[in-house]
């Protein structure tokens, strides 16, 4: 597998980066957090541009390029949940015009005379409160359900731009036609990879802002970036980002090629992204000093998005344990 972008992928990266910079600037992110600006038009622009059609696993690398830029911009739309969690489970019933998300656990299914009955509560589901469709993974299979059929309650979290909700199915009846034959394990690998590369993008944003700050901020008549201790922290963040980015794109390649190594690759990418955010969070705040703790500083949005990426679908320690168990079984 070639771990370098070809000419088309580099052009795609430049195109996405330019578009995101124009359509999702820092002013929009702050407006949503402070004034409740509606991110709906931004989601509509993604749909119109065809970015929501990158659901085919063969486009995993191109999708990862988009997600990295979205992580850097702290994207406020349901793109991540729709493309990396819902679409892989929906299969050929995926509609790029609709937002969706996945319910991976907490719900059971049993048959009755009319079809299937879904019961249970799933906690902390990404973007469930603004999804139109839910892909529900149960012991009886995967079911596509209208979000309106469930009781969905948004849960407040520390990232003001992130939508997290609890989803309850109070004995919801669905028919056999709502059961889809897709691979939930493979879908989870895609979800992990999507979270990993999004976290990498957020960490890159932390580094970008920190580097600009240490170039501008002066102490003793010189930029603080000229001090070796400051440089060491910036380099530590850079090395962590490069490691996590490489593993995330490798995981995307294994998905694109339907390589059986994707199971390990996805966990490795998620673990590396978790380690990366830890370094970027700690050193990023230290490089900003007290300014890093203020609401007025935009670094807070990247810090919170990076930390959120670590907490969803298992942290670094959990995925390192999975990797260790996998190798012990070889």
UniProtKB/TrEMBL annotation:
The keyword Oxidoreductase applies. GO terms for molecular function: acyl-CoA dehydrogenase activity; flavin adenine dinucleotide binding. Signal peptide: none annotated. Transmembrane segments: none annotated. It comes from the Bacteria. The keyword Oxidoreductase applies. SUPFAM superfamilies: Acyl-CoA dehydrogenase C-terminal domain-like, Acyl-CoA dehydrogenase NM domain-like. Its cofactor is FAD. Keywords: FAD, Flavoprotein, Oxidoreductase. Residues 194-325 form the Acyl-CoA dehydrogenase/oxidase C-terminal domain. It holds the Pfam family Acyl-CoA_dh_1. Belongs to the acyl-CoA dehydrogenase family. This is Acyl-CoA dehydrogenase.
